[in-house]
Design brief:
It is a single chain. The chain has about 325 residues and is of the alpha/beta class. It contains 14 helices and eleven strands. It has three domains: about 100 residues, no CATH class; about 120 residues, no CATH class; about 80 residues, Arc Repressor Mutant, subunit A. Strands 3-4-1-5 form a four-stranded mixed β-sheet. It has a four-stranded mixed β-sheet with strand order 2-6-8-7. Strands 9-11-10 form a three-stranded antiparallel β-sheet. A hairpin with a 2-residue loop joins strand 10 and strand 11.
């Protein structure tokens, strides 16, 4: 089957590529991978490390490995990380939750707790948020530095292709399941069909680590258009730095100083200065200062969106965390505090 995405001249001009991984899409797509049995060795190893607790299995009803998954689990939200994504899910209009659940019910019977969601039960939605957060902390967050580094590398290639060949040239080579016949982008696969008319809204491309097989998109074409596509992964194993490990903190302290070591480990998949200050039990001014030192050393990166500032660990910082955790010697010295 084929989904035909219809562009206008304005849509081509408004095509964007997400600057960072989308935590909600990575969460959803990781649930698909968790329920799979095949895929590459990279995911088989990850799957063996993730416990399938009863609460996690409850999420399978909303995100089956094949067919439709609830659109409201991947909301459009700002770039302030996972917390902002959860807040957007929590604020989903009840009518949209009900519509998404009706589509799911056409595929398979829904459990009783999902029916509570459909009835606009606030407590049921809050419980869902709690389960999503717990799963993310266990299955996605520990690997975020690797996810971010791989997506950044793939995105740089895509941006370079677009600068060299133009938007049309980039779309021709983005993924084998995509065919560009101007002004229509065709997405081939058993999971999609029909026509998506952008009508001047543009299209947001989201490179994804956990997306496997073919690119995917939202079922509801009235939502902001997005196309999530698999990156070309370079690693064969997923490894998680011990962000909460006291041993890791002890190993980093002589190199960075106690406060900066804690700041580097606390950044995790990305956080604002306020969140960083709270996690490290320091003032926002102190958190900003130490983050600045780590940024100057190439261990953190900082992006500003409006009034919000978001810090993330760079590939160099991620490598430092991993190597210190495993006891490897370090080649680069960073001035301690």
């Amino acid at each position: 089957m084929t989904l035909r995405i219809h562009f206008t001249t304005d849509d081509l001009a408004r095509l964007t590529i997400a600057s960072a991984p989308d935590p909600m899409w990575e969460l959803l797509l990781s649930l698909h991978v968790l329920q799979g049995t095949g895929e590459e060795a990279l995911f088989r190893h990850w799957r063996s490390q993730v416990p399938r607790a009863p609460e996690v299995r409850r999420l399978f009803a909303l995100a089956p490995p094949k067919g439709y998954s609830a659109d409201f689990l991947t909301p459009e939200h700002d770039s302030n990380g996972f917390s902002a994504g959860l807040e957007a899910v929590l604020c989903t209009p009840p009518s949209r939750v009900r519509a998404d659940l009706r589509l799911l019910a056409n595929q398979h019977p829904l459990p009783a707790w999902a029916e509570l969601l459909a009835s606009s039960c606030r407590a049921a939605l809050a419980e869902l948020i709690r389960i999503l957060a717990g799963y993310y902390r266990t299955a996605v967050e520990p690997y975020w530095a690797q996810i971010e580094a791989e997506i950044r590398q793939d995105r740089e290639i895509t941006v370079r292709d677009m600068a060299r060949d133009g938007t049309s040239g980039m779309l021709r080579t983005l993924h084998p399941a995509l065919t560009w016949r101007a002004p229509v982008l065709e997405l081939h696969g058993s999971h999609v069909s029909g026509d998506l008319h952008l009508n001047g809204r543009g299209l947001r491309l989201v490179p994804s680590f956990f997306c496997h097989g073919s690119p995917t998109t939202l079922a509801d074409h009235t939502l902001s258009p997005v196309l999530v596509y698999p990156i070309v992964r370079t690693q064969t194993r997923m490894s998680a730095p011990a962000a909460a490990s006291e041993d890791g903190l002890a190993a980093l302290t002589p190199l960075l100083g106690a406060t900066r070591a804690r700041v580097l480990m606390a950044v995790g998949p990305g956080c604002t200065t306020t969140e960083l200050a709270r996690q490290c039990a320091v003032s926002p001014a102190s958190a900003s200062y130490h983050a600045g030192i780590l940024r100057a050393a190439g261990l953190l990166s900082t992006q500003r969106t409006g009034t919000a500032v978001r810090h993330t660990v760079t590939p160099l910082g991620s490598g430092l965390l991993r190597r210190r955790h495993h006891g490897a010697p370090q080649d680069q010295q960073v001035t301690p505090s």
